[in-house]
């Protein structure tokens, strides 16, 4: 089952992202990459925190539990998918 | 407050702070105050690898074909990493174990240090392959001025914490005179030293390793020193995990999710913590300058490396609640990422799901044909 959400990036671009909590549609990071957004990442596995992104509005679901400390207002796009329309700063 | 290897007082580890509470008695992990450390232990152990598994024999040919300036870059980085892991292979144990109060954090510290010793052993593995006698390289680590400056900065916060903890554990609180010098010992002062020490270790794991990583992976991009690069990838993956643990400790303090006094200290010493980080950034840029003093290498030069230090420092500082201090928001070395992705790290055979490598495994699948010659 997958849903489609709008993801606003850095206050400029708006992407349409299909998301599935079983991971079959990839992660939010994959979606940003596919749309040629310049992304920050290292491990792509939720433990290094290099992809840390500000979540201005919306909600995400983690498909893998992150090991990195997620500060309030931050998300780790390498291991989550959108659960609503999002406004993020990457 | 002398240390006991088995604290017989009845304490509840769920109400203890991470450090400077009661010392740990029973090593139990069925209940955890900060379960993240148990998860880090599991992850780290799942990463287990041995340097000997990586074949570095081809690297000798590549090394001999390098220019003198490239050799300088390669060997200097190995020296620096040897220093870093020499410190990290022992210091978390010596400095933090006497003051830790949670069983899961205690075991994480031991696991963490153990993996740093694997890294140290792997530098010997690499150097032994390149030189008939690697003594000259190892001996230079304690003489080389550039390395000395860094060694000083890295070890001083540990040494300071260790010394004051020893005074506290043997003499208790108060003014203590040793060799004509007076030291003021109380728990708040000790906690401040701990805070600065963890910040210094965090900066070490966050950026100090990355200048050498960048050079190693720049060689690998040219298909040189590939055995070495495989080892460094495994090391980088481990270091990422170690970094996560120091970030967790700092953030738990900052958010007041552990010791309330550490929250106060985090605010009180914020500027000093920032200064520690910025000094590490500065030193890494100077290190880049030293590396390239005789000339650059293909694909990498001093200014690119300094930009990378700034880029990564921004990411690391935001992770512990500082504003990003540098303008460098895009990654000047995009190829670095492919070496840092953990899925691209080749798994060691015992990690892969090959049944021959699963110790003590039982094949529990039974098919009808297995019962074919069975008669009643």
TrEMBL record, chain A:
Record-level Gene Ontology MF annotations: 2 iron, 2 sulfur cluster binding
One Pfam family here: Fer2
PROSITE patterns, sorted: 2FE2S_FER_1, 2FE2S_FER_2
Residues in 2Fe-2S ferredoxin-type domain copies: 3-90
Keyword Cytoplasm: no
Keywords tagged on the record: Ubiquinone
Record flagged with keyword Oxidoreductase: no
NCBIfam families per UniProt: PRK10713.1 (NF007985)
Designated name of the protein: Ferredoxin
Record organism: Pseudidiomarina planktonica
Organism lineage: Bacteria, Pseudomonadati, Pseudomonadota, Gammaproteobacteria, Alteromonadales
From TrEMBL, chain B:
One MF term in the entry's GO annotations: ribonucleoside-diphosphate reductase activity, thioredoxin disulfide as acceptor
Keyword match Transferase: no
Biological processes annotated in GO: deoxyribonucleotide biosynthetic process
Top EC class, one word: oxidoreductase
Enzyme Commission designation: 1.17.4.1
Keyword Metal-binding: yes
Pfam families named among the record's database cross-references: Ribonuc_red_sm
Family to which this protein belongs: Belongs to the ribonucleoside diphosphate reductase small chain family.
Protein name: ribonucleoside-diphosphate reductase
């Amino acid at each position: 089952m997958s849903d489609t959400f709008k993801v606003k990036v850095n206050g400029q671009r708006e992407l349409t992202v299909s998301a599935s909590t079983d991971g079959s549609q990839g992660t939010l990071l994959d979606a940003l990459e596919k749309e040629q957004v310049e992304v920050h990442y290292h491990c792509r596995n939720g433990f290094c925190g290099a992809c840390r992104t500000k979540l201005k509005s919306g909600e995400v679901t983690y498909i893998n539990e992150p090991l990195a400390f997620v500060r309030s207002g931050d998300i780790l796009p390498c291991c989550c998918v959108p659960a609503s329309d999002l406004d993020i700063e990457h | 407050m002398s240390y006991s290897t088995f604290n017989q007082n009845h304490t509840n580890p769920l109400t203890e702070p991470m450090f400077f509470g009661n010392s740990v008695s029973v090593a139990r992990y069925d209940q955890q105050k900060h379960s993240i450390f148990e998860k880090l232990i599991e992850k780290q152990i799942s990463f287990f690898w041995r340097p000997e598994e990586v074949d570095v024999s081809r690297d000798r040919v590549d090394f001999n074909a390098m220019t003198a300036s490239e050799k300088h870059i390669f060997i200097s980085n190995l020296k620096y990493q040897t220093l870093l892991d020499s410190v990290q292979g022992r210091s978390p144990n010596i400095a933090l174990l006497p003051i830790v109060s949670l069983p899961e954090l205690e075991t994480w510290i031991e696991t963490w240090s153990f993996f740093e010793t694997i890294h140290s052993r792997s530098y010997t593995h690499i150097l032994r392959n390149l030189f008939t006698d690697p003594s000259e390289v190892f001996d230079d680590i304690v003489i080389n001025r550039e390395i000395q400056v860094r060694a000083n900065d890295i070890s001083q916060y540990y040494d300071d914490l260790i010394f004051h903890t020893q005074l506290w554990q043997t003499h208790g609180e108060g003014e203590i005179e040793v060799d004509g010098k007076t030291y003021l010992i109380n728990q708040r002062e000790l906690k401040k030293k701990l805070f600065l020490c963890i910040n210094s270790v965090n900066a070490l794991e966050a950026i100090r390793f990355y200048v050498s990583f960048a050079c190693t992976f720049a060689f690998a991009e040219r298909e040189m020193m590939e055995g070495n690069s495989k080892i460094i990838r495994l090391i980088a993956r481990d270091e990422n995990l170690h970094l996560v643990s120091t970030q967790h400790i700092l953030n738990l303090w900052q958010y007041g999710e552990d010791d309330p006094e550490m929250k106060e200290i985090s605010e009180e010493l914020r500027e000093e913590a920032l200064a520690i980080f910025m000094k590490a950034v500065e030193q890494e840029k100077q290190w880049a300058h030293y590396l390239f003093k005789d000339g650059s290498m293909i694909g990498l030069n001093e200014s690119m490396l300094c930009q990378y230090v700034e880029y990564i420092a921004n990411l690391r500082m935001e992770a512990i609640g500082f504003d990003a201090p540098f303008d460098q928001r895009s990654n000047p070395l995009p190829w670095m990422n492919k070496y840092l992705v953990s899925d691209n790290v080749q798994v060691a055979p015992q990690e892969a799901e090959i049944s021959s490598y699963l110790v003590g495994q039982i094949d529990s699948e039974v098919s009808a044909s297995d019962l074919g010659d069975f008669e009643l």
